[in-house]
């Protein structure tokens, strides 16, 4: 038998940490990380791919571990200098070391290389030990519908006027505190899965949905035309891991995203949102929840409860092992 092939659908921090566990749990496997690019943006003329970079730096041992994103040993001199000019956006942190990645990426994209090829080139340095694939080589950017004139949080809503702002502006600048009424993926309809994505899914012995943001990470990847169907048609089992433990995101503000689309912040509700692969549009064969959520039930899906906190390497590896076992590999 050839080597086991595993595809992990991932966002940034949750996806990256989980991927370290998968790499350790099944070192001989061929692992493909299928990464969200809906958070990508252009700042100061540079193309930035936050989730791809978080995964690349984390698996390449270049991540700032405490912060969870960006380079270790980072400095911020360019950011300070840009601020001295009053350059917008001042709220998006670009570190000096990180800038080199964005400069190379932007230059290669401008020369006509697709993002998947650019990512491969960047990974030649970082050697993440897994194959990193962007969900699409086409530009897809998540925007958030907010009030046109946001007032104080407790002010009565007048209804009517909405505007769409880039996801990063909502997430980073406003810390997801502006009431959100939904998400729009600009460019989604015309987007195709990146080179290699459909092949990886069609030959996967297991597909794992990392404990990433279910709305703007996993949800966005699955929304790329062709990807959800390819996951549903894959030969291997599909197992998801809940990013929600005991009614709250383990870190970050995923609850604000779930609320915006009318889904409760519980492991059960997220599992039901992904749905059973036995039914139209569902993607799950198995759903892994934390032991705190052992009562969760998802119709048509095998639910198992194990500790789901990635507190250290051993705990993360055990989580990955449990997911692979539930997927039958
Ligand atoms: P982002 O793109 O950087 O926001 O990261 P992801 O989308 O990959 O992951 C964010 C999600 O990871 C959040 O909803 C967190 O709840 C989840 N997460 C982070 N750490 C853990 C953990 O230790 N266990 C679980 N189950 N989820 C986690
Ligand atoms: Ca992200």
Automatic annotation (TrEMBL):
Gene3D superfamilies given in the database record: CofD-like domain (1.10.8.240), CofD-like domains (3.40.50.10680)
Record GO terms (molecular function): LPPG:FO 2-phospho-L-lactate transferase activity; magnesium ion binding
Source species of the chain: uncultured Mycobacteriales bacterium
Keyword Magnesium (UniProt): yes
Magnesium among keywords: yes
Keyword field: Magnesium, Transferase
Source taxon at top rank: Bacteria
Taxonomic path: Bacteria, Bacillati, Actinomycetota, Actinomycetes, Mycobacteriales
EC number(s) on file: 2.7.8.28
PANTHER family documented for this protein: 2-PHOSPHO-L-LACTATE TRANSFERASE (PTHR43007)
Name assigned to this protein: Lactyl (2) diphospho-(5')guanosine:7,8-didemethyl-8-hydroxy-5-deazarib oflavin 2-phospho-L-lactate transferase
